[in-house]
Records
---
Amino acid sequence: MQGAGDRDVRTPTSRIRVLLVTKSLGHGGAEKLLVDLVATGDHKAFDYEVAYILDSEDTLVPAVESQGITVHRLGATHNLDVRWMVAFRRLLKRKQYDIVHFHLPYSAALGRPVVLSFPRGHRPVTLYTEHSLWTKVSPLVKLLNGLTIRFDDAVVAVSQAAFDALPVRVGRRARVVVHGVDLSSSVELVSRRSEVRRGVRTELDLPDGELLAVTVANLRSEKGYDVLLECAALVAERGLPITFVAAGAGSLADELAHTHRALGLGDRFRFLGRRADALALMTAADIVVLPSRQEGLPVVLMEATSVGAAIVATSVGGVPQVITDGWNGLLVSPGRPEVLADAIERLWAEPELRATLGRQAGADSTRFDIARASAELEELYRALLMD
């Protein structure tokens, strides 16, 4: 492990220089966590910068820069465009960071060899955060990640499920740091829930008595949108006054639009595209639904608890770390639209249960304060530099 003694001499007032490296700064759970981490960090002690690989995935760049954080675009046009590695090396040579913290397997698998290309006495400390499940990436990225992860000085998993999915040799030296969300935004929205609810319902032109079920997730196969659409069709067949809306975008947009038309859902299910106000949508929701087939620690569920939403989610990955069935939400098996529809119908029929689950979700959300996770990571940074 490379220690602080091998670096340039620091003055007592120098800040520790940290570069967070990610594949994308587009909409996504891992990306949102990264933005919140740098926003809540100790900027008197740490000098944070962020580098992202895919040039087109830049939606969250303004959110990072608004915190006074420098963002570096590495300029890849697609996954096979590895010219970004050259830009990354130039950046490391120019800035001489103390710590490089990789997020997401692609950035780590290809970024570590760049760090290793420097002489031993001139390499930053490196660490890696596993946001999802080790096995749920492409075989090539998983292979490269497995071959190079031994060079990292520390490994972090964002949930127990993500930790459990690590190879045994990696898990022996990994630790769980449960990440979270910026609770201050949620507090502000909850304080004016009635106003937020009126605004959303007016925008969607929902009649009185119609329940609003909200899903916030990218349009990818692992998010279970095919199941959600079938569930919505079942809910419509049962004559329940529930409108489904989905905030998100992704590669399955055309396929899901075709399924939507085939099921004849019309306005009973609406794709809203990417929404900057996703947290407000969940604040206004009667039910928040997450039908995923796989998850690490889903940011959207932590956000949903923070606004006191009544939640129905599938019991996969790190979801049970957030939701306890019957306590602060309802859990169902993945891939079963009829079971999902039954749970949603139960919440429609039992408004008292919706209110109780929402209240408990809000109370439990204090476990997921991103400021606590940020402080824990900064303690880890200090410890690594002391070794």
---
Amino acid sequence: MNETNGRTSATNGRGAIWMPTVSMLLVSLISYIDRNTLALLASTILKDTGLSGEQYGFIISAFSIAYMVGNPVWGLILDRLGLRRGMLAAVSIWTVASAAHALAGGFFSFGAVRAMLGFGEGATFPGGLRTATQTLPAWQRSRGIAVAYSGGSLGALITPLIITPIAQWFGWRKAFWFTGLVGFAWIAAWLLISRRLVNNEEIRRPGLRPKFADPRLWAFMCAYGLGALPLAFVIYGASIFLAKARGLTQVQIGALLWIPPLGWEIGYFFWGWVCDRYVRRGRTTYGSLLFTGMVLSLPLALISSAPLPVVMFEFFFSMFAASGFVILAIAYATDEFSASYSGFIAGIGAGSWSAVVAVVMPVFGKLFDSSSYAAAFTVASLFPIAGYAGWRLLSRFGTKQPRREMQASL
């Protein structure tokens, strides 16, 4: 199937060809509902269980370490054994773990179920990227990645709207039973949708394998892992900041925390569109767009003492900017390396991000315990600078691979 025929088939069967990618949108949505339920209810759970902000940070680290390990593991599984069985196993594991949060009551029990959740959810983005590259033509790839990944931001957006009333009416433990039921519903749907998976020819083409000795793989990890750190800072820290620094109640926090992920959701589609339209057609470079994302991330350092409307807008805007590092880093890596390793590429990217989160979240938690909010916001704003600088330095090494997919689409 050549690129022209790929365009035609994609146009004629748009609904069918996009269905697997949309299913990945749903699974990433569910994964973020599962992981963000704890973040949303953190102030209530910490008060009820007596956990400190630093302990909460270590619980987040338990998730992040397991997630870091799970991402490349599931990426390899999906590349070698296939999407259908791999995603079924992964979602089953994390659905059980999500529901098990309802039974947790202390530091070690929360850490254990959180780690199990993190390992299972390691398949989320490898599954999304693998599906987009396996079922969509190259000229729609970045938008496909945006669709598959956008479920995460959409899940973060709707979690406060869904979980807050459930927790208010029935208690925080019942909220986790609800997340388990949602996961089982997706599993039932996946058993039907995954029967119709098809492969495009590009996924079977030979090409460059990503290796840890290759500086370009580390450039990708820098852009993704460091540049997108503000996503985690806002996801995990906003609820505690609004409760401790601004005195908001759980209900008030739930009414506001849909705003930041909206910037994340819009950002995925904006950066995906920009990448397909301009980078893949040779009108600009990854470097110029990553530099733009870095500059847009800097105002986060200045908002710890700002009025509440300004804080919420900057939470929104910082997530918009950070989402660009995710989309652009993934697009860069899939240009440099063979699409047949897309699951592993996505796993390495999300795993590098999770490794950074595992290291810094206890630090942010300790800063929040001591009310050092200005320092926490400043540190968070510096990571995109480090991400861009690392990518700029490391991406200069190695031999540039021909962009067969882009050339065919012009």
---
Amino acid sequence: MNIGKLIERNQCAITGIKDLEPLHQINDFPVFMGCINSQISQDLVTDMCWSISRGSGLIQLSKLIPLETLYPESHGSGGVGRLWEMHHKAFADFINKNALPIAVLEVGGAHGILSREYKQYNNIPWTILEPNPLPVEGCDAKFIKGFFDENFKCEDRFDTIVHSHVFEHIYNPDEFMMNLSGNMKAGDKLLFSIPNMQEMLIRNYTNCINFEHTIFLTEPYIEYLLAKHGYKLLNKKYFMEDHSIFYFAIRDLDVKEIPLPKGLYEKNKNIYYDYVDYHKELIAKLNKEINKANRPVYLFGAHVFSQYLIKAGLQVDKILFILDNDTKKQGRRLYGTSINVASPKILIGVANPIVIIKAGFYNNEIKAEILENINDSTQFLE
């Protein structure tokens, strides 16, 4: 089912200059990364069209999905798994050590896990602005349902704004930063966590850029935007080599703008085409293994991990289930596919099952859990 009218992005999302050139296109990609119960005939698909700015080197989607279509419900990202638990604890510690906030506004807090983790340091007023709230047990933050835009006003006073894995979802990062600065006074603090997108794309992670992450938002662009909108960067910390980057900045009206580094166009274009070539070779290898397999075959990850592989040409006729640890996804169907989702525990008692896995920095955690606690005869293809 085709989606219809899209939002056209015809200029660089960082500089505003109309200098985009086509980079790559993936036809008929599913617009939602979650799991649903409806018929596949109701699924929406559209072409994923990537462009690159000749001046800034920014890779970005040129056709965007309307937000109400893209986010009909939460798909649970960031709420499940030991790695995400480690991330939230580390970011809460970063906030405490750098900012010592009095009151926090968190943009896009979803489940409220970060606010819950921060309570161990100080139980302060914490307000979460989120279009699809899913509060976890133990979260006592105040939730406001909605998006952060030029119309947002918060009645509560706060000295700190926080967001975690939100910036990469923003369609207009320049406007987002302008709205942030308009809600903050000199000396107010801004802390955020963002995926380490450059490292992710270099490592060929399929959850790096997509319909939700529409901009290849790497460190040069983030630091350019911070300076442009009056933020002084005080600290930056890497969480793992390939996962996230934590930023701490304060509102400072005396900060001078900084230029983007030269050579980003060539650098980013090469990274992206290496990524495309890698997946062509990977799909050929995986299909060869699937065709000769005489054992049960499964695919891990009821998310964009699997959607990307399938749209890149992965053969699915022998795949019995998509496995996922998220209980909210189990028993449902991965959007854009005809494959249902099951718990990895379905592998118990299966003789030498084959599991295709391409889940980025989650790979090791997933494999260890299956081999140690579910089925030690599992063969992984990755």
---
Amino acid sequence: MTNLQIQYTLEEMREKGIPIRPYAEFLNPVVKAYDLVYLRFQRSDLERTRKELSDFGMLVVQHDDDTLYLRAANDSPFCYINQKGSTEKFLGFGLSVTSRNDLVKLSKLEGASEIHHLSSPGGGECVTLTDPGGFQIDVVFGIEKVELLPERETSKLNFPIEKQRVNEYIRWDGTPPLISRLGHVVLKTIDHCKTVEWYRKTFGLLISDIHHLDDGTPYIAFMRCDRGKEACHMHQVALAQYVDNEFDHAGFEVVDMDAVAFGNRFLKEQSNWKSIWGIGRHWLASAVFDYWADSDSFMHEHFADEDVYDDEHPTHYSLMAASNLYQWGPSAPNFFKLTFRNIYRVIKAVLGNNDITLRQLKMAKKAMSR
């Protein structure tokens, strides 16, 4: 482990004199979201999208001329919506709450929709808000659950002392491993602190970890739903500072590390997906990961074996660095490539009234070389 791979609590940061710019605290959020339930995209070719997402491990629930719904193996009727459109675009995502009264509270916020019924599989009700980056956030309640789908059993492992697999084998049947659940969505934000604080104030999200720059400026916030003493995955929504508001990637959990590897082999051999990064193990979240991009350049991740926390787990801070993104695996790709489009967006972002400076962008570029 390098010296960069050290996590501190806020109190430890202050005791050591490490500069930090904490986010505002919100002890009484409007509601407490319970889970991330679906993603919403606009696509020009639904048939191609159906094929590619099936290769990735999702199952089609409903497919007509205008909309494509897909599901995972869990009890949610769908986890992925594609709407027919002329261009490829990430539209937003859905969060669930545990009471209809939460929808009533949200419907009273400025810019929120009225409570409306959903025509999607499973029914239910919804209030739609728009986050500071312009993404549509559906907050849903009352969607009917469906039966779990059978999944491949997790691999029994033989350790030096304990042998779990006797007269048995580990074999792959050659099909894409089924997605177990939608795990997380990561967005890039131009007004980072404002956006993080909006999600926390509105949905009560807890911050699990923060990557910060050399001057203490938060750069990536990994947030999870507050379920009290019920353990929750390390992050369901993550927000990273950038020169624009855009989708970064979505993570989908599979049953185990073998499923990550089986998916890797299938996508390499039989699909149009492009390998981006993996297989490796993250440092934060500890998950085994594998990143791919579809034909529309939207990045998706298979992951397994991720950390879970309850509400007693404090926020930890760590220095932004490429080496802090993974423990083992291929080197992290260069996310700061200099193109004419990026130069234009940097100038526009820095000159605009946004939560970003040229100095911070230089620090971020430097961090990714560490």
